[in-house]
Amino acid sequence: MAKHSLYVRLVAAQFRSQLQYRSSFAMEVLAQILLAITEFVEIWVLLHAAPVFAGLTLPHTAVLYGIARIGFSLGDLLFGQADSVNKLIKQGKLEIYLVRPMSLLGAVVTSTAQLRRIGSVVMATVIYIVGIRSSQVTQTPAHLALEIVAPLAGMLIFGGLFIIAGSLLFWITDGNQAVNTLTYGGRYVASVPGAALHPFLKGFFTFVVPATLIAYVPTCVLTGAPLDPFWWPGLAWLTLPIGVVVWGAALLLWRAAVRHYESAGG
Amino acid sequence: MRIYWELAKAGFRRYSRYRQAAVASALTNTVFGLIRASLLVTAIRTTGHPIGGYDALAACTYVWLSQALIGPLDVWGSSVDIGERIKSGDVTTEFLRPSSILGSALATNYGRGAFEFLPRSIPILIIGWLITGIRLPSSPLAYVLGFVSLLMASALCYTYFFILQLAALWTGEYRGFTLLGMSIQQILCGFIVPVTWFPGWLLAIDRWLPFPSMFQTTADLLTSTTIGTAAIGPLALQAAWLVALVGLCQLLLAAGRRWVVVQGG
Description:
By secondary structure, chain A is mostly helical. Chain A has helices at about 1-20, 20-50, 60-80, 85-90, 95-100, 105-110, 120-135, 140-170, 175-190, 200-210, 210-225, 240-260. Chain A has twelve helices and no strands.
């Protein structure tokens, strides 16, 4: 338990240090809010052209976007810098983290967590709540549970994806763009209706990167919108276990990556 | 002029060293292209008629072209590094050089763009053609005009992000400004969805802004949405915006130079 409180204190210290540059921090939070808005505008423009898009209406897509973006932003806030580990390797700074009396992953995460991403968490939550209200979701206990579990499971899955992306960069040090397919590609896919996707993407983003499961399936279950027969409604309840599996895979891969790492002898 | 040509060649050589990065980018651009094409085609199929002048094949061509041009055009200004140079103080050296700061940066950027055309544009167009099919213009004139427009769009995107990062001269910070500027530009330049898909009022506002000149104009020419003499107006507008943004940038640089001197740099 003492070990965990160390992590919490380090993250808190990191956040306090970011809050010191007030105007710069405010500007970045504002930018995060605007970013979340413009991403939703993109979906809204599509819905303006086709009012029922892949079975979903505008309120439905607000629920969809809300779940996907809250999950992504929280995962990004805490673990989003794991995929910049190759920069540390190139600069020869990884050794500094390796000699600390804590796990490498813990050290990297606690020294890079980005509080400014709270901006997009807040904006996505607003869109999510408006979406749930205007979709007239019947608030059964099961629905209520799903409304809370879905974004949190999204956080777990995206956090794991960031760590997987970071692990892969130990092998392909110039591969930031390639691993972006897992993280940012996953975010993009998670925030659009799965039914609209090319069959290859449906397969890849369900079985390899479980992005379509994060928000699309739960949204259809919550709002009663028609679910594409590629998926079944029961999957909405499996996102939490899937998140745990992704984390297991992420931690194993990270361990293999760190073992693979050979310092330049700095 | 000789110096800018040499800088462009150096830019080409510099980026040609990062082949792994170029291949990685091409892979990602392809996956994103397939996602975007799926979305636009779904919208067109749902309504059962072309949207904003785009049928399914035109929409796919538009998407693959835009994904293929991410590298050469650098639509999000990811290779603009003046903000970092200002923060580190390296900018003082740049101010001492006899060549123009913006001019040198633009020349290097053209060299970078010329290299990225090979590993990042051609493969994506071929993959797009294989997956969904694309419809490229048949007249040679369209390619010539498209290329001229691409050169201007590239300079416009670069100068836009250069101006945003100059904020670091006065505020010491540029990330927030850049992110704000990018989130607006990304939608309004027509990179995500063609601007003709916008609701009327948004399109009306956008026509008065420099953003469509940063991407949509070039895409229209290369997808044959704009043909023949209709191309004159958009190209002239692109040139006008380029003059305006470069002029603004030079003014800010001149003011910035005085400011840095005051700081004792």
